[in-house]
Predict the 3D structure of the following.
Amino acid sequence: MLLDTPGSNDKVEAVAVSSTDLARPGHGLPPAVPGAMHELSADGVRFVLYERAGDERDPVLLVHSVNAAASAYEVRPIFERLRERKVYALDLPGFGRSERPKRRYTPALMTEALRIATEHVSARHGGAPIDALAVSLSCEFLARAADEYGGYRTLGFVAATGLEGRNGPRGTTRAQPVVRSIVACSWWSAGLFRGLTRPRVIRFFLRKTWGRRGIDEGLQAYCEQSTRVPGAKHAPLSFLSGELFSADASLLYEALEVPVWSAYGVRGDFAHYGASTHLESGPNWTMQRFDSGALPHFEMPREFLTAYAQFLSANAPSESS
């Protein structure tokens, strides 16, 4: 894949905005997870942060993956079942109930959204570093946010991308200019997105994710709804052009100094994601294998949450600190 030149990603500015009224004309998508909603903004794009009622201690921020129909529903089993923690989850800009304007979607924008969400959550809990967990491609965004801004006590990665040796120039992406020009064409992009988001195509990719025919039907249904929202094609088309993949992802992972928990499954087309012998030897990395597809928290929620909770507990601050 061709790389952008260093510094080619758009610079973005972010501002936090609290709001309880998230109604938007023509949106109509129900919440991905149950809980209160806050509205934040990165580079003028409003995005949603969900908050689960419950224990006020030790917040955890959850980040969904990136695909043609992504949303916070992808972390719903963790959001609902991670007890004795205050849990937050966001819909990244361009996905779920967040705004979906026609614009370029880049790692810089997603990283800024994570920074804003992290600072918002931390401020609500006394300003301390927080725990955060991301899925698939969003692991790259979370690693970049940790590297550039900090603010995290631990990081959790599920089926992380970018572990295969992406050591390109810092701040560049794997965007393909030819593909970008094709998807920028309204006629081509509309047909391409319609084809990729037909119910049977969504099911096809979910079966690849699960590595079997049986999938989570609730996720299937929400994916179908999410792709019908006005502007739903814009962020996924940036994903398809390679613009949301970081060319320097491996360097970001190697630079992390906080404790990292990396979970991965062994079935499906994405079974190799999340596994890295090189990083496994690092003193701050813990690799966790599950006999599942790429989303073990759907297939094995009890085992997944037990392992993750043990990792969090092992890295919790002492009572005297």
